[in-house]
Structure formats: C-alpha cells, structure tokens
Amino acid sequence: MVANIITKLFTSYGLVGAIGIVALIMFIAYSIADAIGQKRMGSAFAIIIGLILAYIAGKYTGGEKGLSDIKLFAGLGLLGGGMLRDYAIISTAYGVKLENLKKAGLVGVISLLVGVAFSFVVGAIVAVALGFKNPVDITTIGAGAVTFIVGPVTGSALGASSEVIALSIAAGVVKSVLTMIITPIIAPVIGLNNPTAAMVYGGLLGTTSGVAGGLAATDPKLVPYGAMTATFYTGLGTLLVPSVGFLIIRAIFG
Amino acid sequence: MEIYGLGIIAFCMFAGTFIGNLLGELLGVKGDVGGVGIAMLFLVLISNYLEAKGKPFPEKTAKGIEFVSSLYIPIVVAMSSIQNVVAAFSGGAVAFLAGGLATIGSMLLIPLISKIGTTQESKK
C-alpha cells in the first residue's frame, strides 16, 4: 500500500520528484567535494554521480535513457531534457558585457577561436582514430572535447544517437575534471601567473567549472580574468561547431 | 516581475532557434544550426543595449534570469543521469582520449598565445 502511494507520487509529480533527486545528488556531491577540500569540484562530482546512476540504471533496465527509464524517475527526462537544458544555457549569457569582450581584446578573441577549434579538431581526430566514420558522430565527439554542453547541443541538433551524445558528455566531463586537477600543477610551467595568461587560459580551456576550479586552486586573483573569456567559449562553441564544424567534417568524411 | 526575466529568455530562445532552424534549412543541414548560440547573443545584445541606454532590466526581471541560470548545473546533472552511459562505456577510450588530449594540448598552447598578447602590449 505504502509502495503504491509512493509510486503514484513519483509518477504524478514527476518533475518535482526529479528536482528533489537532483538536489539530493548535488548535496551529496558538494559534501564529498567539501570533505576533500575541493569545493569547486562539486559540480563535476555531481555530474559524475549522475553518469554513474545512469550507468547502473542502464544495466538494470537495459534501456537507453538512464535513470528516466525507471518509472519512479521518469521526471528526470523532462528536467534533463533538451528544452530546459537549452533554456538554462541561454540564461547564462546574461551578465556577459560587450565591453568585456572588447577589454579581453584581440588576444582573448584569438584564444577563444583557437581554443574551440583546437579542442574540436583533437576530439574529432581521436574519434576518427578510434573508428568512428559517420560525420555526425565525429562532429559530436569533437564537440564534446569542446565542453560537455557543446557536445549534447551539437549531438541533438545533428540527430546523433544517445550513445554518442553520452560519449561527448563524458569527454567534456573528462576535460572539466582534468582541468581542475592539472591547472595548479602545470601553472608554473605554462606561465599562468598574470591576468593576460589567465584570459588566454579561460579562452583556450573554456570549461567554465574547470576554469573557475583550476584558477581558484592556482591563484584566486586570476579567477575573474579566466572566467571572463571562458563565459564566451560555450556560446561560441554552440554557434560554430554544429554549423561550420559540421560542414567541414561532412566535407571531409561525408 | 520575475516572470518577465523568464519570458525574455523564452523570447531569445524562440528567436534564436527560429534563425538556427532557418539557417539549417538554408544550409541543407538537418535541424538547428547554432540556435542556442544565437539566442545567447540576443540576450547579450538586448541587456547591453538597455544598459547603454541607462535603462537596465529591473531588479526583479534580472532575478528571474539569474534564477534560470542558477539551474544550469542541476539541469546538466539531470541530463547526465538520463544518458546511455552503458553504451558510452563500451567506447570509453574515446571520451578519455578526446577530453584528455584536448585539455593537455590547450594548456600547452597558453604560453604561445600569451606571447602574442604581450608583444601586442609592448607595441602600444
């Protein structure tokens, strides 16, 4: 009887249930991050927990849509679906100042363009080297190497399969986590100790959580400079990769 | 009102993805081409234009937009929990190599591009 009522609650209040579940995941993730003294890694941990749960659910149900294939958690399909995702991503553009773009100047623009192009090309080369032949798949994985947002946005725009989209998110998560871990270690070697280098760093790496986390662990004074350019990265990626990037890949492998 | 902020994002989203889809049709690409990016550009242009005119969004409108943007990471977490990770793991090397090489390569490019920045400064 109790189980029936609970099932009924989760199915009729699907979206609310999903919000509660995500809040719980975030709470656990940030608690772990806090416990190991890496507060900035909270979001990366939360995403990893999400992916692990999706993996477990996938093994359990044999379905393709992770946790949302379990009836109780179907609301996650709405909360994490394309509609709300794109809506939230667009909102992050608020607060970006045109004059900040100008202030970051030529070097910021160069680092942004080089950064998006470089990560995309590296990701695409890896995809081709490991046997992907479909231009949509190659573009989506390349997009994932840009950020874990550009990957799924590109993948769903081009109609890639959920497997490939998951790969692209995984590639983006690897980038975000690695950026947070490596940055403080590699900073002295690459001269990451002044505002200009921090702006270039934000423009080249682009993963907002990775950049904020990495810079905070290196020198908190550099965070705004890196974040300033990094804010533009995902937007530029979502603009260029599914359009110009895909056309180039399709011309080569189409 | 906060709902105005939510509405402004909705407007940008529809305008941006409309153009993205139009572009897709014109380019012969299936679906939406950069619609989200164009929508972001609209939001930047609108908010900057209003600020330049000395009439920025009212506090409550801005709060509405900030509310949605604060949901971005939780939505990404929900998104990660509905992916086909089982299938992704059969090709796990792709994700690790693509993400890893892109990260390390990008970091090694930093001194190179910083140099362009400093020579540009010293020329001034």
Automatic annotation (TrEMBL), chain A:
Endpoints of the signal sequence: none
Domain of life: Bacteria
Transmembrane stretches, start-end: 12-30, 42-60, 72-94, 106-132, 138-158, 165-186, 198-218, 230-253
Stored InterPro entries: Mal/Na_symporter_MadM (IPR004691), Mal/Na_symporter_MadM_N (IPR018402)
UniProt keyword terms in alphabetical order: Membrane, Transmembrane, Transmembrane helix
Name of the protein in its database record: Malonate transporter, MadM subunit
GO molecular function, one term: sodium:malonate symporter activity
Malonate/sodium symporter MadM subunit N-terminal domain residues: 6-253
UniProtKB/TrEMBL annotation, chain B:
Keywords: Membrane, Transmembrane, Transmembrane helix
Domain of life of the organism encoding this protein: Bacteria
Assigned GO CC terms: membrane
Upper lineage: Bacteria, Bacillati, Bacillota, Clostridia, Thermosediminibacterales
This protein's name: Malonate transporter, MadL subunit
Transmembrane feature ranges: 7-27, 33-50, 71-89, 95-114
